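haha ok so turns out i had the wrong file open the whole time. this is the CORRECT one, sorry everyone. sequence first:
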Amino acid sequence: MATYNPNELVLLSKSDEITLDVDADIRGRKVVSSAGDELGTVHDLLVDQTTNRVRALVVNHGHLFSKTTSAIPVEAVTKITADEVVIDQNKDKVGDAPAYDPTLIYDEDYFVDVYDYYGYTPFWYDEYVYPTYPIYV
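then structure:
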C-alpha cells in the first residue's frame, strides 16, 4: 500500500491552480443523486497537487437551518451537466456522511473513514484506479 501524503491535497479555491475551461469548473453546481434528488451544492474541490487530479468534492448540503459540509470522493460522480453534478449516492447517505473539516484533510484516518463510508478505495492505495471522467452533457 502506498502512503498517504497530506501535503498533496489543497482546496482549488486556496491554490494557484485554475481551470482553463470555465465550463469545466463545477463549483456552484447542484449535486443530485442518480434518482434526481437534490443533495446540495459543490462548494469547492480537493485537488491533488502532485497529479493535478480532483480527489473529492466539498459539498454543502442540508436544510436552511442545518447546513453541513462533506467531502464526497470524486469516484461518486457519474455525470456532469451544465447545471448539475450527478453522483451514485442517495440523499440519506450524503446526509449522514462524515462532516468536512478543513483541518482534517491532513489526517489519513479521516480520508480512510470517508472512502470507507462511501464504499470506495482510497486514492493512495496501490489497487486504486482513478475513475474515467463522466462525459459532460
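Helices lie at 91-95, 108-118.
again sry for the mixup
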